[in-house]
Amino acid sequence: MTLTTTAAPGVRIRDLTVVYRTPHGELPAVRGVDLTLAPGTITGVVGESGSGKSTLALSLLNAVQPPGRIASGSVEIDGIGDVVRLGGERLRQTRGRRIGYVFQAAQNSLNPLKTIGKQLLDLGRSHGVEDLRGLVRDAKELLARMGMDGARVLDSYQHELSGGMRQRVGIMLALVLNAKVVVLDEPTTALDMITQAMILRIVREIHEERGLTTLIITHDVGAVAEIADDLAVMYGGRVVEHGPVEEVLGSPAHPYTQALIRAIPRLSGDLSLARPLPGRPPTLGTLPVTGCVFRERCDRRMPICETDDPAQVVAGGRTVACHAVVPPHAPAEPAMRKEYA
Ligand SMILES: Nc1ncnc2c1ncn2[C@@H]1O[C@H](COP(=O)(O)OP(=O)(O)OP(=O)(O)O)[C@@H](O)[C@H]1O
């Protein structure tokens, strides 16, 4: 094997814009996003519902479906190239084999007419796996690590499994082909908190053992703090802050990240300290066309926020897109304007 196939790959998302067709025309769910996943890291993506997390995850596999489309930008993955430019059989082979994934509601996406084992064999055959016995062995081992009886699960139909069991099957299917890039979109929502923590710990272990580059999307900031190296915070289709997880959570720079953290109920101490962020996140129809996407709910709003979209400014290991935050040594950059139509 060459180094490129054994080393964890880096992922570079550049100027990515994804639009959905609506009665009001094509509107951006992800807009001008730059995000780098360093090789061998777990990057968590958080943000309120509708901020564009799932659309970003789908873009990593070039799997945005109509009425959506990737309007511009690139997703460069070491050893694969620009996924946005892949199509046909190469794209099909890349998904699953090179990029493992669990999409949202994975517990509902299994085939109800085939046992899990049959679906596993179909997956292996469709990717040209010759050692199908080895594949079954690996699948059983992954299921056992996640606290399940592998043989029994492989003999089951989806309706014989609980939502949490199906989610673990989804994680197994994302990992079993040994892909080096793994995208997990809300992989543990159907699980109780203790099982969720256990599964995320196992995901972390497998990530380290295999040298993966992992993107994990969740609503749960606490859960992601446990396993991620880096954190990206999304709002209104933009990555508003990105950096090492302890830094972003320990000293959040963007007013939205600060509000998100203030809104988390604490398990200990005064419950009333949790302060929900007033207002609602924008929908595609209510997203401001000019200026900062967060300004309507921002307590540091300034006149420039009405007119200019803040650029992502890099300072140290952190990226922040906010006019009110000008980190030391970071020259203020001209406002970023993106074409998406
Ligand atoms: N098929 C679609 N057609 C039209 N609009 C869509 C479609 N899918 C998503 N959107 C819109 O795109 C925006 C981003 O959605 P997305 O699902 O990526 O956000 P999210 O952060 O993953 O939300 P959630 O946490 O609820 O899954 C939302 O405003 C959503 O309504």
Automatic annotation (TrEMBL):
One GO-annotated biological process of the protein: peptide transport
Pfam families: ABC_tran, oligo_HPY
A GO MF term: ATP binding
Protein's UniProt keywords contain Nucleotide-binding: yes
InterPro entries per the UniProt record, alphabetical: AAA+_ATPase (IPR003593), ABC_Ni/Peptide_Import (IPR050388), ABC_transporter-like_ATP-bd (IPR003439), Oligopep_ABC_C (IPR013563), P-loop_NTPase (IPR027417)
PROSITE patterns linked to this entry: ABC_TRANSPORTER_2 (PS50893)
Keyword Membrane among record annotations: yes
CDD domains documented for this protein: ABC_NikE_OppD_transporters
A single Gene Ontology CC term: plasma membrane
Membrane topology, as annotated: Peripheral membrane protein
Location in or out of the cell: Cell membrane
PANTHER family per the UniProt record, alphabetical: DIPEPTIDE TRANSPORT ATP-BINDING PROTEIN DPPD (PTHR43297:SF2), OLIGOPEPTIDE TRANSPORT ATP-BINDING PROTEIN APPD (PTHR43297)
Family designation: Belongs to the ABC transporter superfamily.
Full protein name: Oligopeptide/dipeptide ABC transporter, ATPase subunit
The species this protein was found in: Thermobispora bispora (strain ATCC 19993 / DSM 43833 / CBS 139.67 / JCM 10125 / KCTC 9307 / NBRC 14880 / R51)
